[in-house]
Amino acid sequence: MTKKHPMDTDLDQRIWLTVCAIPAGKLSTYGDIAERAGLPGAARRVGAALRKLPHGSAVPWYRVVNASGKSSLPPGRNGADRQRRLLADEGVLLRSGGVSVLKRYRW
DNA sequence: ATCTTGACAATTG
DNA sequence: GCAATTGCCAAGA
Question: Coiled coil: which residue ranges (predicted)?
Answer without folding.
Answer: none
